[in-house]
User: Fold these one by one.
Assistant:
Number 1:
Amino acid sequence: MLKKTDLRVIRTRKMIKESFIDLIQEKGYESITIRDIADNALINRATFYLHYEDKQDLVDKLIDEVFEELTNIIKPCMYIQKKKVKISQFQSMIEIIFTNIFQHAKFYQIMLSEKGVHGFNRKMQVIIQQNFRKEFLTMNSQEQEFSTPPELLIHFISSAFIGTVEWWVNNELLYSPKHMASQLVNLITIGPLQSSGFEIED
């Protein structure tokens, strides 16, 4: 009996979340009411409140679920050892991240659009930065070991990643996760000018 109840809860929450995403795409986050969500999910308001406190609670939990998957993937220790970056492993990790975003394409496309939740991209960037900070601490890296301050490095990489993801989802996922990973790794490791074919002179 407990198992059936759990499955019913999972199913109801899935309907609520899918309804919510569809409504954001249709009306924009700010315009949505609890009545809208309930009607679209074919439930009553009382059922909604059994699972979520309000619209903000729903969007927070939805974002946290998706970001938890993303957080579990970002592991700099997998490709950085003794200040040496293993490019093949770095690119593999980035490809896994893009694949995860591809699997949640509709969510990211809507959230990163004008109709999405204000500050979503900033929250995503903060999550990435926190992961890198944690991993740098795990590696026991000291600030004096870097020619560029770690905080600046973390901010640059996270900004490059967010900008690339935004461009990708706003352009209908034009390229494969593997191609996007290759492009981003080149931009980060070689630099935007050299990766585009420009020669650098003193």
Number 2:
Amino acid sequence: MNIFEQVWSWLTDPDNWTRSINGPGIPYHVLKHLQYTGVAILIAALIAVPLGIYIGHTGRGSFLVVGIANSFRAIPELGLLILLVLAMGIALAVEAVTIALVSLAIPPLLAGTYAGIRNVDRDVVDAARGMGMREWDVVWRVELPIALPLILGGLRAATLQVIATASIAAFVSLDGLGRFVIDGRAFGADGGYAMMAGGAVLIAALAIAVELVLAGVQRLAVSPGLQTRRMRRRVARVWAQPKLITAEESS
């Protein structure tokens, strides 16, 4: 039996869906994986989105976006997690995992929000102000609706990165789909490789499923006028760039 047949056998084994080596089955670990991801994305959004809106609207502190986006991307999440656990103690492992994942989610959310607000046509903003709109009305009724594709693009990128990285929770004895990867490594050739590959397949499948859901939400939330082929190409071009924010934009 080759590795693909072993992985398929492991995934289709009813016992693995009700229980596993460490107790709960696959559905439990999927829910824990989603819990780590959801909490991290929520906290990161509460930090990054308002900050990105403020900096993008006022143009003040653009260097913060450059510094935060570039420095946070250079942080090794596993190394940060181990450092936090050593400093905070294993009893606060969940909090340590959350901090590590939040640090991963902030850069794409912050950069996406900032880029979305700054890319709004200044003539449109000036016209809104000329109509007597206050600054909050300009942000809420003009800039945010137009910037929504890039903001949601940042949300999707952050969510996928966090889902892929949340498996590090297993390194500090927490649950989640990374549990199968870690436990499978301990068993090695005695069925462990199939478990490791099965856990990786589940993480990839979860990421694809969440991406499809978020793509559907974006399609429903974004105004039809912003869903043109030209706008989609513009969003794709922005996210294809290795650095969304450059030093020139911060000056």
